[in-house]
Write a structure and sequence with these properties.
Number of domains: 1
Strand content: 15-25%
Number of helices: 14
Bound molecules: zinc ion
CATH topology: Aminopeptidase
CATH class: Alpha Beta
Number of strands: 8
Shape: globular
Length: about 375
C-alpha cells in the first residue's frame, strides 16, 4: 500500500492544482506535455485543457493508454492515479518492454472536473457522446420516459420527496436490471435531463479524437485503461469490457474483476456513445483491449439521488455558476466520486498501478 504522504501528494482538491501536479511530475521526468484547451474557462478564469503525456518511444507499435476525467469530477482520483503511475515509471518500479509506450490523457472533461460535475459544459455525459460515425444524436431508452418525471423534476419547488421509496418502487416494477438500463443507457432527447449524450460530438470529444489521429499512426496494439469511479463495492475496481470480447482470455490476464457491460451480469449496463467503443470504431485498424476501470464509492440509489439533486439545482435554481460550485450538492458530488477516506485512496492508487503491471505483461506477449 502507498504511504500517507504519497496519497496527499497525488490527490488534489481543485482542477488547477491537479493539473499543476501533473505538469510538475512531467517536468521531473523531462516529458513533453501537449495541452489541448477548450473554449470554456474554470471558476478562477483559468484555462481548461486535456493534457497529454507520452512516455517511451514515440514510434512504438504497442501502447498503454490511460485516460481519466471523462466524467469530470471523477478526474480527482483519476489524476491521482496518473501521477502515482508516472512516479513508478520514473523510479523504474515499472519497466515497459521494447517498442512499447504509455500515454496519459489527463482529464478528458476538464470543465466537469473544475466545476465538480460529471457532465461537460453542454450537460453532456462524454461517455455517451462518442456515437459511431454516421449515427444520429437522437432517441432514448424504451423506459426512460416512464422515469423522466422522477429523475428530472423541472422546478425547485419542494413537494413531498418520496424519492427513495419511489425509486425503489420503479425499480421493482421494471426490475432492477431494466430500471438501471433505462436510466443509464444514454438519451439524446432531453438536454437538461440526466444521461444526456449531447446533440453532437463535443469540443472535448473532438479534441481527443484529433489527438488520437495525430499520435496513434504507428500504433498497432493498444491496451486502454479508462479510469472511473462510482459503481461497485467501496474501493474495489470492476474492469468493464464490451460484450464481444474474449472474456476468458481477459480474465486470465486481468483477473476475475473482468465484467462484461451487461446489466444482468454485474454492476454495469449497456451504453450508447461510450468513449471506448466510439474510438475503436474510428480506428478499426488497431487491435484494441479496452477496459473501463471503475472503482466503487457509494451505493447506486444514493448516487442516483445525488446526481438528480445536483442536476436539478444546476438546471432549475437560477443560481450563478460560482454559487452552484459552492453548493452542498456539488460538494457532495466531489465526496461521492472522490471519497476522502485514506483507506479508499490507498486502494485506488494501489490498483491503478497493478493494472498497468498487468497491461505491461499483456503487451510483452508476442
Ligand atoms: Zn465515470
Amino acid at each position: 500500500m502507498p504511504e500517507d504522504a504519497e496519497v496527499h501528494r497525488c490527490f488534489a482538491t481543485e482542477y488547477v492544482t491537479a493539473r499543476q501536479r501533473l505538469l510538475d511530475q512531467a517536468e521531473k521526468m523531462e516529458l513533453e506535455v501537449e495541452s489541448i484547451p477548450i473554449t470554456e474557462k474554470g471558476p478562477h478564469e483559468e484555462t481548461l485543457s486535456t493534457d497529454y503525456l507520452w512516455f517511451g518511444p514515440k514510434d512504438a507499435t504497442k501502447l498503454i493508454l490511460h485516460t481519466s476525467g471523462v466524467h469530470g469530477v471523477e478526474g480527482f482520483p483519476g489524476s491521482a492515479a496518473a501521477i502515482h503511475i508516472l512516479a513508478a515509471l520514473k523510479k523504474k518500479e515499472m519497466v515497459l518492454p521494447d517498442d512499447c509506450a504509455i500515454a496519459f490523457a489527463h482529464i478528458i472533461n476538464p470543465w466537469g472536473m473544475a466545476w465538480l460535475r460529471r457532465v461537460n459544459e453542454d450537460n453532456a455525459d462524454l461517455n455517451r457522446n462518442f456515437l459511431p460515425p454516421g449515427e444520429e444524436y437522437e432517441g432514448e431508452p424504451e423506459n426512460y420516459a416512464k422515469l423522466d418525471h422522477l429523475l428530472n423534476p423541472t422546478s425547485m419547488q419542494k413537494g413531498r420527496e418520496y424519492y427513495t421509496i419511489r425509486a425503489a418502487w420503479h425499480s421493482f416494477r421494471l426490475g432492477f436490471a431494466n430500471a438501471k438500463q433505462a436510466v443509464q443507457e444514454g438519451q439524446y432527447t432531453r438536454p437538461k435531463s440526466l444521461q444526456f449524450g449531447g446533440s453532437e460530438l463535443t469540443e472535448s470529444s473532438q479534441n481527443f479524437i484529433a489527438w488520437c489521429e495525430r499520435n496513434l499512426t504507428n500504433v498497432e496494439r493498444v491496451v486502454w485503461i479508462d479510469f472511473h469511479t462510482g459503481l461497485g463495492p467501496f474501493g474495489v475496481d470492476s474492469l468493464l469490457v464490451g460484450e464481444n470480447v474474449n472474456e476468458a482470455a481477459l480474465k486470465q490476464r486481468y483477473g476475475a474483476r473482468i465484467q462484461p457491460l451487461d446489466p444482468k451480469k454485474g454492476v454495469a449496463y449497456k451504453i450508447r456513445g461510450g468513449i471506448q467503443a466510439g474510438i475503436e470504431a474510428r480506428f478499426p485498424d488497431k487491435e484494441w483491449t479496452s477496459i473501463t476501470q471503475e472503482f466503487g464509492t457509494i451505493k447506486p440509489i444514493p448516487l442516483l439521488r445525488l446526481a438528480r439533486a445536483e442536476n436539478r439545482l444546476t438546471q432549475w435554481s437560477g443560481k450563478p455558476p460560482l454559487r452552484l460550485l459552492g453548493s452542498t450538492e456539488r460538494r457532495e458530488m466531489l465526496d461521492a466520486f472522490n471519497p476522502r477516506s485514506l483507506k479508499w485512496r490507498k486502494m485506488i492508487l494501489e490498483r491503478s498501478r497493478a493494472i498497468i503491471v498487468d497491461a505491461i505483461a499483456h503487451l510483452s506477449e508476442e
